[in-house]
Protein 1
Amino acid sequence: MIDLHIHTTASDGTWTPEQIVTGARSLKLDAIAITDHDTFAGYEEAKPIAAREGVQLVCGIELSTKLQPPGAARPKTVHLLGYFLRPPSPAIMEWVALQQQIRHDRNVELCARLAELNVPVTIDEVRARDKSMAGRPHFAAIMVEKGFATSIQDAFDKYLDEKGAAYVDKHDPSFAEGLRQIREAGGIASLAHPVRLNRHGRDEEDLLRQMVKMGLQAIEAHHSDQPARLRDRYEAMAQHYRLAVTGGSDFHGDNKPGVQLGTGREGNVNVYKKHLERLRALARA
Ligand code: AMP
Ligand code: ZN
Ligand code: FE
Ligand code: FE
C-alpha cells in the first residue's frame, strides 16, 4: 500500500517529517509522498531520513488554485497535487516562494478581520507555529487554545471557511498557472479530492473535462473524504478520460482527527503500488 497525500509540520500537519517517515515504516507502506501546501521544506527534511529508514519517498506539493467554470459567477478553489518534482527546479522554488508571500499577506488581513470581531490572533502567534507555511488550520488551533472555538471544525464553521465571519479571499494562482508550473518542472499534476468540487453528475464531469483539456494528467480517486461509491466513480472517470489515478489519506495528524496515515478514515483508503508505477512511467515519458 502507498499514501500519496500527506502533510507535515512544514505546512499544516502536526507530525514532523521524521514522524511521518517512521510512521510509514511501521505501517510497512511501500511508498509515501509528502504533499505539503506551498512548500518542499517537509520533503527536503524527510529525504535523508527516508533513505536511512528504507522508505520510498516521492517529492510532492499541494497547490491551491482557482478555476473559472464557463458561465459561473465566481471561480472555484481547486487543489492540485504535483508529483515527481525532483529535484524541485529553481523556477518552481521561486514560484512557490511567491505563493508563500501571498499566503502571508492573506494571513495579515485575516488577523485584522479577526481583531474586528474581537478574536485577537496576532501574526506573531501564527508565525510561531509554522516553519515555512502558515494556513487557516494554524489559526484554528490558536483559536481553540484561546477558547474562541471548541474545535478546529468549529473555528472553520464560525470564522474561517468561505461562509465564516472572518473569511478573507486568498489571491490564488489560476488552475492553468498551477498546472503549468507543475508540468514545466517535470511533474505530474493530479486533481486533489475531486469530492470537494462539490458538484454532481454532469456538472462535475464538465469541470473535469475542462481541466483535462488544460492538461490535467491524473485524478485523486482515493481520498479519506471519498467513500467507496465515489472512489469507483472517479476511477471510472479516470479510465474514460485516460487519466492516471492517485490516492492518499490527506493525513494532517491532530489537525484532521479521524484520518490515519496510510489508511484514511476507518480504513477507507487503500492505494495499490501499481498506481505509483503508472505515475512514474508517465513522469518519465
Ligand atoms: P489555507 O490554505 O490557509 O487557506 O487553508 C486551507 C486548509 O484548511 C485546507 O487545506 C484544509 O486542510 C483546511 N480547511 C479548509 N476548509 C476547511 C473546513 N471547512 N473545515 C476544516 N478544515 C478546512
Ligand atoms: Zn492541509
Ligand atoms: Fe487539499
Ligand atoms: Fe491536502
Protein 2
Amino acid sequence: MNSLLNYTKDELSNIFQPSFRAKQIFQWIYQKGVDEFDEMKNISKELRNTLKDKYTLNPLKIIDVETSQDGSKKYLFALHDNLTIESVLLPMKQEQRDENGKLIHHTRYTICISSQVGCKIGCAFCLTAKDGFKRNLSVSEIVAQVLQIKKDNNIASNRKVNIVFMGMGEPLDNLDNVAKSIKIFNDSDGLSISTRRQTISTSGLSHQIKKLGEMNLGVLLAISLHAVDDKLREELMPINKAYNIESIIKAVKEFPIDTRKKVMFEYLVIRDLNDDIKSAKKLVKLLGDIKAKVNLIYFNPYPMSEFKRPIKKDMLNFQKYLLDHKITCTIRESKGLDISAACGQLYEKNRKAL
Ligand code: SAH
Ligand code: SF4
C-alpha cells in the first residue's frame, strides 16, 4: 500500500480538500509523530477510515540498532520487499556560551541517510558497490529514516538536525525522490529543516549536478573527488570515464550556493595512492577560485579490501598544505568505526548476518 510519506504538502492538498487538511495531516505525521491514523484527532472519522483503506504511514521496520562507543548509532531498516538499508545518527557535542557567558554543552545531531539499495556507480573502495544495485528508495523510505531515528531517540520534533545523503547509494541517481524528500524535510508544517542543513554527497554526475542546481533548492553540495587526476580517478571511480574531473569542476562553478556557504570536496585518503604532497598541490590548483572546503577521510579498510588506511603523519601533512594555501580543510574523524557506521561503510556486515 502507498505511504502518505510519499507526498509533499502541495501534493496532499491536491488529494484532500479543503487544502488545510494537508497541513493537519503533515503536522500529525511530522510534528506529533503519530503511528496510527486514529490518533489524528482533528480529522473526521470518515476521512480517517478512507486514509486507513488507502494509505499506510511508516514504511520502515527497525531490525537492528548498534551503538558505537562514540555515541553514534547505526540503524538497519527492513523495507516492504525485505531488502535492507542503513542510516546513522551522529551526535556531536558542542560547547556554546549563553548570554551570561556561561559555558553550555549542546548536542548537534546529524543523520546520515541512504537513497538507494546498493549503488550502480561501482567505486573500487566502497562496500555498498560490492553487491550491485537493487533499486531506488521511494520518497517515503527516504523521509522515514529521519522520522524514525528522531522518534527512536526522543529528539523533539522541532529540534533541528542536519541531514547528509551519505549512506547507501548515489543520491543524484535518484534525484526526483531525493529532491521531493528535501522539500518534505524543509516544510514548516513538518520537520522544518532548512535546506542549508541538508547536504547531498555525489560521486560527481555532472549533468545531474546541473539539474539539481536548476531546481534551486538551496541544498548544500558535497563532491566525492578522491583523486586529482583522471587516470587514478577512473581506477577508483569508473564513473569518471563518463564525467571527468573537468566536467565536475565546471558543474560546481555553475551551482547556485548560499554566499555564506562552501562546496565540500570529500577526499578519501588511501595510503601510497593519493596521500602525497604532489596530490595536495594539484588539489589546491584544481579548487582555484571555487569557494570550497575539503574534508579528508581516512580510508576505512574492510576484510579483503585492496587499499590501505593512510598514516596519520601523511594525513596531517596533506591537511597542513591545504591550510597553508588558505583552503579550509578538516579531517573526518572515523565516527562509529567499531560498528562500521562511518558513512559509506554501511551494508556488508549485515549482508553476512541475513
Ligand atoms: N554515493 C555518494 C554518497 C554515499 S558515499 C558519494 O559517493 O558521494 C559517502 C562517502 O563515503 C563518499 O565520500 C565515499 O567515497 C565514502 N566512502 C566509501 N567507502 C569508504 C571507505 N571504505 N572508507 C571511507 N569512506 C568511504
Ligand atoms: Fe556509490 Fe558513493 Fe559507494 Fe561510489 S562511493 S559506489 S557512488 S555509494
Protein 3
Amino acid sequence: MGENIQFFRNYIDGEWTEAESGKTQKIINPATEDVIAEVPKCDVSDARKAIDAARNAFDNGRWPLMTPGERSAVLLNLASLVEAQMDELARLESMNQGKTIKQARDGDFPFSVDNIRFYAGAARTLAGLPAMEYMSTGTSYVRREPVGVIAQITPWNYPWMMAIWKAGPALATGNTVVIKPASVTPLTTIRLAELCEKAGFPKGVVNVITGPGEIIGNELTSNPKVDMVSITGDTATGRKIMERSSSTLKKLHLELGGKAPFIVFDDADLEAAVKGAAAAGYVNGGQDCTQASRFYVQEGIYDSFVKKLVEESAKVRIGDPLSRSTDLGPLVSSAQREKVESYVLYGREEGAKLEFGGKRPERFRKGFYFEPTVFSGVEQDMKIAREEIFGPVLPVLRFSGVDEVIASSNDTIYGLHSSVWTTNVRTAMKLASRLRFGAVQINDHLPITSEMPHGGYKQSGFGKDMSVYSLEEYTQIKHVYFDMTGDRRKGWHYLTYGDPA
Ligand code: NAD
C-alpha cells in the first residue's frame, strides 16, 4: 500500500507547512483499514503560529475591512471551485470517513455549495439599527462587526460539511479562522484550504492545522489571541472547552451531541413512519447528531412498527462505500465500532430484545462494519435509550398517551432534533411547541436547508449553524454615538459634579 499513501501538509499564513516537530499521523480508510495518507501531527507551537497568522490577518489585513460584496465574491469563487471538484472531493471524504459515496456526492457536497452561496449572499444583507436620535443630544447607530479570530473545531462524522458550516459564515462576516479537523478525518479540510487559496482569500485568513484535539485543541481554546471558539463535537468535549476558554472569556458556539426522539402515534401513516425511521436511523451509519436514535411508538401500532422496521433494516445494503449501490459503509474507526458494540451489550444486559443485527457482518474480513440493529422492549432508563450511541442501532420504546411521550422525549440532557409522526394537526402542533429541541419535524426526520437554523437546546449546546442566525453568531454589535450639541459642559454632567445649568 505504501506507494499509494498521500502526504498532506497544513496551511498556515498562506504557506504549506509540516509540523515543526516533523511528526506525522497516519490516516486510515475505515473500509479497508489501509493507511491512505499522512498528515502533520501538530503541536502547541504549530497551533500558535496558525493563531498568530489569523490574528495578524485580522488586525492588520484587509479581509475584515473589505465590503460584504467583495468578500462575497471570494466565497462565490470558492463555491464554484468546490462544485467543479465534487466528484473527487466526495470520493476522498468517503475513503477517509467511510460514508457512502451517495451520501457524500449527492448530499454533503452539493449541500455545502448551496451553504457557501447562501452565506455569501446573506452576509450582504446584515444590518444594524438605522441611525436615529434616541437621545435628543446626539445620534446613535449600530455597527455589526466581525468577532475576530475564530478557532473552528470539527468532528469526524461530517468533516467537510461541518468545516463549511463553520468557516462559511465566519468568513462571510469578515473574521479570520483557524480550522482544526478531527484527528481521524482531516483530508477534505486540507483540500478546503487549497480551494480557499485558489478562491482568493488573503493569506492568514484561512488556516488549517491537524493534530490531537487534547493538545492543539487546548491551545486553540485557551490562547488569548483567539476571540471565539466554535466547535461541533461531543457534549463532554464542549464542557472541557467551556472550562478551558473561561480564563479568557471567549465567545462560544457549541454544537454538541444529540439523542433525537422519533415519535410515532397510532394515527400516523405507518409505512411512511417506518421508511422514515430506517432512513433517519441509518443515515451516515447512524453517526449523525440528528440521527433518529430513540423511537417512541404508540401501543396500538407498536408490534407492527417493530416488525416492519426489521423488514426495512434487512433491505439496507452493507458494503464498499465507494459503490453507488451501498447504503451502509463502515463506521469511522475501530474505536467507534467498539463503542457501538458496547451499547449492544448494554441493551441485551438491561433486558431489551435484540430483533435484528447487533454484530459485525461476517462476510467482511476488513473494515469497521456493523450491521443495522433494532432493539424492541426498550425502557426509558436503559443506556441505549439515554446515551448517544452514534451507530446504526435503533432502540424502540412503547408509549400510550400524549403527555407521557412529551415527558419521556424531554427527559434527556440533549435537545438537538426531534420528529413527530401523526395525521392529527392538534397533536402535531402541541408537540411542536412542547418538545424542547432545536428542531421539531412533522412527518419527516432530517431535512435541512441553508435558510433555516440548526442548533441545540440544553446540553446539545448553543449557537446556530446555517441561516442568518449563524451570521449573527460570528458578528458583534457596537453602539456608535455622535454628540450633536457641541456643548462643552453637557446637560448630564451635573449628575457627576456641580449643579444643573
Ligand atoms: P469529539 O468531541 O470527540 O471531537 C470533536 C472535535 O473536538 C475534534 O476535532 C477533536 O479533535 C476536538 N477535541 C477533542 N478534545 C478537545 C479538547 N480538549 N479541546 C479542543 N478540542 C478537542 O466529537 P467527534 O467524536 O469527532 O464527533 C461526534 C460528536 O459530534 C457527537 O457527539 C455528535 O453528536 C457531535 N455532532 C454534533 C453536531 C451538531 O450539529 N450538534 C453535528 C455533528 C456532530
Protein 4
Amino acid sequence: MITIARLVLREIALSLREPFRTSSGTTHDRRVLLVEATEADGAPGWGECVAEEAPAYSAETVDTARAAIIAWVVPAVLGRAFAGPEEVFPALEKAFRGHPMAKAAVEMAAWDLAAQKAGVPLAGLLGGTRERVEAGISLGIQGSPEALARQAAAAVAEGYRRVKVKVAPGEDLDFAAAARRAVGEQFPLSLDANAAYSLDDLPVLQRLDGLHPVMIEQPLAADDLSGHARLQAALESPICLDESVTSAARAADVIAFEAGRIINIKPGRVGGHAAARAIHDLAGRHGVPVWCGGMLESGIGRAHNVALASLPGFTMPGDLSPSRRYWKRDVVSPEWVMAGGCLAVPLDRPGIGVEVDRDLVETLTAWRQELRSGTGR
Ligand code: OSB
Ligand code: MG
C-alpha cells in the first residue's frame, strides 16, 4: 500500500556541456521538473519529467506539465491509497486525458517510493533481470560531417555499443556517410530524424537506407503511422518509432500496421513505468525488439531508465550514456559511469539506487512548490 501525503514539485536548471541539436531544435540548457513524493513518513520517491522547454519533440512542455501536475495529477493521487505503484497510471488515465509526460513524472516517483518502502531496487520491482545495460550515444547535428565523424570515432573508442546520429533534411547524407566511415562498416550505427521527413523525401531516405543503419528512428511525423508503414515497405533498414509511441495502444497500432519493426521506449514519454512495461511485454509477444530511449535526463530520470532497461526485452543498447556525457556535475551520487560499454544497474540499494544531491538540487532550483493532502489546494 502506498499513500503519497506530500509532493514537492521543483524546476532545476542544468547546463549541457555541449549544445544538442536535432531536426527539431537546439538545447543548451535543460529546465528539468523534479518530483519528490513522500508518505506521511519515510524516504521520498523521486521522479523526473522529460518534457522540454518548447513543444518541439511533443506537445507537452515544462510549463504545461507543471500546470497539468498541479491541476490534475496531484488531485488524482495525493492522499489516495494505492495497493501498489502499478495502480497509479490507471487512476491517472481515468482522471484525465493526455499529458503522459506530466503523468509519468509522478507515476515514476511512486515506483521509487514503493521500491524504497519495500527495501528493494526499482529494477527488481519492475521485473528487471540484467545487472548491466548496454550504453549507446546519441550525437546531435554537428557543424560539419568531419566534426561528426570525429565524435563518432571517439564514441566507438570510448566503448559505446551503438552510435546514433541525428539527421535533418539537408544535413543527412554527408553526415550519415561520414559517421558510417568513422565507425566502420560493421558497427551498429543508427539514424534519428525526429519526424523531419515526408514521403516526398523517399529518394534521400533510400540513400540513408543504403548506409545500412541498424535502424532509422522516427523519419516521419509522429501521427503518421500509415506513412511509416508505406515507408517501411520501401526500406531495407528497420524503422524504429519514438515520438509516435505515446501509449501501449499506439504501440499495438505500430505493430498491427507494420509501421516500424523496433520500438524506442521512454517511460517518461508514455505515462511512466506501468505503460512502459506494458509496451515491453506487448512487443515481446510480437517479437519486436525494444530499447530504452533518453531525453537528456538528469541522473534521476536516468536511474529510472536504467532500471527499466534491465527488463529482459530490452535487447538493444539504449540512449543511456554516463553523466559526464551531459553534465559537469550530475545531481546524483554516485554519478552514472560507463564501464565496458555498459552502465551497472544499482542492485545493492533500494529504489532508484542513486542518492539525490539535495544541496546541489537546492542550488539549481528555479522554483519549488509543495503540495500536501488534506490542505486546501
Ligand atoms: O529523439 O531520442 C530522441 C533527446 C531529446 C529529445 C529526443 C531525443 C533525444 C536524444 C538524446 O536522442 C538521447 C539521450 O538522452 O542521450
Ligand atoms: Mg528519437
